[in-house]
Design goal:
Keywords: Cytoplasm, DNA-binding, Repeat, Transcription, Transcription regulation. By secondary structure, the protein is α+β, with helices and mostly antiparallel strands. The protein has helices spanning about 20-30, 50-65, 70-80, 100-105, 125-140; strands spanning about 5-10, 15-20, 35-40, 45-50, 85, 95, 110-115, 120.
């Protein structure tokens, strides 16, 4: 399975389109839908993203009972209800819906953050602050060594 790795910040153009980073498009190129799936993060001002094949696998797990229903039913119900499938245009861009942009306080630029099998879309300044907080926590946990 190809993974979403690294961090990229891209500008949103005047028509509201943003270019999906080329390495992310490469991960998505073998999927059944040429685009991305986005939905609001449940507990943070972030947009969660993945390829449609990940949602297909999740749906299969729900049908076969291979998924912990009680712990995750509300989350998956919300995710499927709010998911937006966005097709790539000829240049590999998508138009992110305004309500998702508002949820993540994204305005002129968006930071794409690889999270392995998924990715996140952040307001660049919010990501920088969150990333630094995580880094500092890790340094503290390691006794300040770094």
């Amino acid at each position: 399975m190809a993974l979403f790795l690294s961090t990229f910040t891209n500008k949103i153009d005047k028509k509201g389109r943003v270019s999906i980073p080329a390495p992310f498009r490469t991960v998505l190129s073998n999927q059944s839908f040429q685009g991305i799936v986005l939905f609001r993060s449940l507990n943070r001002p972030v947009i969660d993203g993945c390829g449609v094949d990940r949602l297909n696998r999740l749906s299969e797990q729900l049908e076969t009972g291979d998924f912990i229903p009680s712990a995750n039913h509300d989350y998956t119900a919300m995710m499927f209800a709010e998911a937006r499938m966005l097709s790539f245009d000829a240049e590999g861009r998508v138009s992110i819906p305004e309500d998702l942009l508002q949820h993540a306080a994204i305005q002129e630029q968006v930071t794409f953050v690889g999270r392995g099998p998924t990715f996140e879309l952040w307001c660049p300044t919010a990501f920088a602050a969150d990333h630094e907080q995580r880094r500092q926590r890790l340094l503290c946990q390691q006794g300040g060594q770094g």
